[in-house]
Design brief:
This protein has 413 residues and is α/β, with parallel strands linked by helices. Helices cover 34% and strands 22% of the residues. Helix 5 runs parallel beside helix 6. It binds S-adenosyl-L-homocysteine (SAH), thymidine-5'-phosphate and zinc ion.
Amino acid sequence: MPKCLVCKAQYEPFISFGKMPIANAFLTREQFDKEYFFELKAGFCSNCSMVQLVEQPSREMMFHENYAFFSSTSKFMALHFKEFSEAVIRSHLKSKNPFVIEIGSNDGIMLENFLKSGIRHLGIEPSGNVANIAVSKGISTITEFFDESLAKKIVKKYGQADAILAANVTCHIPYIHSVAAGVKALLKTGGVFIFEDPYLGDIIEKTSYDQIYDEHVFYFSVASVSYLFEQYGMEVVDVEPQDVHGGSMRYTIANKGAKEISMAVFKQREKEKKLGLHLAGTFDAFRKNVENSRNQLIQLLRNIKKQKKRVVGYAATSKSATVTNFCGITPDLVEFISDTTPIKQGKFSPGAHIQVLPYKEFTDNYPEYALLFAWNHREEIMAKEQNFIKSDGRWIVYVPSVHLFPLPKVGEV
Ligand code: SAH
Ligand code: TMP
Ligand code: ZN
């Protein structure tokens, strides 16, 4: 039995998605026969409530010079991080000459706001290509993985921080104890660590199983995050649900007793109990929901194929690797995936090997159906794809349930 990465208790995995590739490893045809696969399995530790992957590829295999995820692709996310930065400046940067650090700063989507406000900042981003974009914008960036030893080096060179920020990265790091110890060392006594990640409660409620892929080693709840930081003399002082990435939670962590604990923390923990996030049975029910979702989606795609209508995937997201490989969605069901990221275009999706083509291929010749892999950017996409709907196009959506949008005409599929 695997051991929990947080508390070392043994636990049983509750789901296996079978063999999976690295979600952001888009490849050329020549690379098909040497593609890397691992078994994607997740488990729940009933001792500390952490949901986690049993196995994860090495960090160097996922984060490197050719990392395919560029944060600034989404305008909606740029706005989200602008608001995030403004909230941090308002509430936590009251000292003279404050210092902000961001872990997993990618192309600088968050830190550019601090740069513009003339605030001392430092990004930590191991993927060289995206880090270089941030550097070219004038953002101070270190191209390394964050851990306790790097934190101590930063303290020596730059001093401690008023705020450490992290979005969609804390849940990527299996050596989470080193992260927590690093944060503790790097923060001023009255400082805050504010991070956000996809929220376990949303994953369970929406059956959004595609949040489960190689990079996401942890699926946090307020309960599991509290357990972890308590071991470092820290506590969760605030939580704020976020609409982004299909439902995220922003956690504010501070040294014990340094800040008042917001009522939101107690309320969210109550909600988690009602949702059963502390019970193994919840995850068995989730597995059944996942299997039903897969069966419905594959049935729908087969019916469409029988009618000889076209389906194109919309956005080659990391999450789509789990959906395509778990459901067995191959190029005979989905013609290609349209994506705006240049380094993905012309390549093939990991595992399922569906070709990724420029966005123009989608708009030049609308298919009857578009499979919305970027369901988490639904609002942004629906707003700009009015013409697809006007030309009688339908979205295939699978979160929170498999459905067509707009609704099909009677007898359509
Ligand atoms: N914060 C951005 C990027 C999220 S993607 C956003 O929300 O859009 C995760 C990023 O974390 C990647 O750019 C990856 O290279 C980086 N990363 C992965 N492991 C890390 C580590 N140990 N320390 C710092 N960054 C890390
Ligand atoms: P994400 O869900 O991991 O943020 O993935 C974003 C991917 O979706 C990225 O490859 C860019 C792509 N994308 C589009 O192609 N069109 C869009 O309108 C949006 C919002 C994203
Ligand atoms: Zn545990």
